[in-house]
Amino acid sequence: MSVEQRYQPHDECPLFSESLEAHIVAVTRGTAPNHGTFCGNCYTPLARDSERCPHCGETTATRAPVDEIPAEVIEMLRQQRKTESSIVNSFAYAGFIIAIIGGLAIVLGIPYLRAHLLPATIVYTLILLIGGRTLAGVLGGYYGDHIAFDRARTRLRAQWAEWVREP
Ligand SMILES: [Zn+2]
């Protein structure tokens, strides 16, 4: 099994096809057995009688399908998802911190609020509830998600490249 023949992920063609990712998630949750027919190249689940992988195009004649996903590949996906979620979470957390500090600055910056505790508390609470959620959503959901995807992918590509080099 030479390195050049192995599936090399690039941006147009993710290493984990949606069906492989869904299958691995089911396996790790215990709702599906790690057994079936998988592409011998990219491990996408195949129909029993299919002759060509729908994801990478490898034919079963060139590379025989395997009947389980290697533990290393499952671990790679687990780590990819972990990297993604921890980056998204830290961006969301940063959004809340900005709302906490920014809200305090707004309340303290308005003389009327500085002198009246009850309205100040209400305004601050609203800033935290609305601003915090919005910022967390925007930072975590948009920026965090984009950065997380790139980061996790870069890492995944390195892991995959290292793994296919092993005999
Ligand atoms: Zn394939």
Task: Please provide a written account of the structure.
The protein is mainly alpha-helical. It has two domains: 1-69, no CATH class; 70-167. The chain is 63% helix and 0% strand. The protein is built from four helices and no strands. It has helices spanning 18-29, 71-109, 111-115, 117-165. Helix 2 runs antiparallel to helix 4. The longest helix has 49 residues, at 117-165. It is elongated. The model is unreliable at 1-6 (pLDDT under 50). Zinc ion (ZN) binds at residues 39, 41-42, 44, 53, 55-56, 58.
Compile the SSE list and pairings.
Layout: H1 18-29, H2 71-109, H3 111-115, H4 117-165
Helix pairs in contact: 2-4
Bound molecules: zinc ion.
The site of zinc ion has 8 residues, from loops.
Question: What are the key terms here?
Answer:
single chain; 167 residues; mainly alpha; 2 domains; 4 helices; 63% helix; elongated; binds zinc ion
Q: Helix count?
A: 4
> Overall mean pLDDT score?
86
Report the uncertain regions. 1-6
Approximately how much helix is present in the residues? 55-70%
Structural class: mainly alpha
Specify the oligomeric state.
single chain
Largest sheet: none
In short:
The chain is mainly α and about 170 residues long.
